[in-house]
Amino acid sequence: MKEITTNDVLAADPDVQIIDVREAGELSTGMIEDAVHIPSGEVLERVGELDKSRRIIAVCHGGGRSGRVAEALTELGYNADTLVGGMSNWEAEGLPMVPPA
């Protein structure tokens, strides 16, 4: 697991899986386009929804929860990283967000 920057996310392979692990109530500010919402407490029970052959970037509000999720996924054999500073950093940099699906 690596801690990656917003620039790394923007430059990532288009086949990357971005999972937003925030709780539903935290999504009102928006999400990264094409991100899938899986709350951190549900990731391990929903791991079958993730493609093990694709890189995963986990995102939360500040980076703590997504770091734990990425670490757990890495231990399960996934190529998972976390976004440093989370969506707080993403929003502070004025990067594009979309409403939750």
Q: What spatial form do the alpha-carbon principal axes imply?
A: globular
Tally of structural domains: 1
| Helix content, binned percent | 10-25%
Structural class: alpha/beta
> What would CATH call the homologous superfamily?
Rhodanese-like domain
Number of helices: 3
User: Can you list the strand order of the major beta sheet?
Assistant: 1-5-4-2-3
Biggest beta-sheet profile: 5 strands, parallel
- Please provide the ordered H/E string of secondary-structure elements: EHEEEHEH
For the record, the CATH architecture stands as: 3-Layer(aba) Sandwich
- Which regions contain 5 or more consecutive residues with pLDDT less than 50? none
Number of strands: 5
Identify the CATH class: Alpha Beta
Radius of gyration equals 12 Å
Average residue pLDDT: 95
How would you characterize this protein structure?
It comes from Arthrobacter silviterrae. Residues 12-99 form the Rhodanese domain. This is Rhodanese-like domain-containing protein. With 101 residues, the protein is of the alpha/beta class. It has a single domain, classed as Rhodanese-like domain (Oxidized Rhodanese, domain 1), CATH 3.40.250. Helix content is 24%, strand content 16%. The chain is built from three helices and five strands, in the order E-H-E-E-E-H-E-H. The chain has helices at 6-10, 64-75, 86-92, and strands spanning 3-4, 17-20, 36-37, 56-59, 80-83. It has a five-stranded parallel β-sheet with strand order 1-5-4-2-3. Strand 4 (56-59), helix 2 (64-75) and strand 5 form a beta-alpha-beta unit. It is globular and about 35 Å long. The N and C termini lie far apart (27 Å).
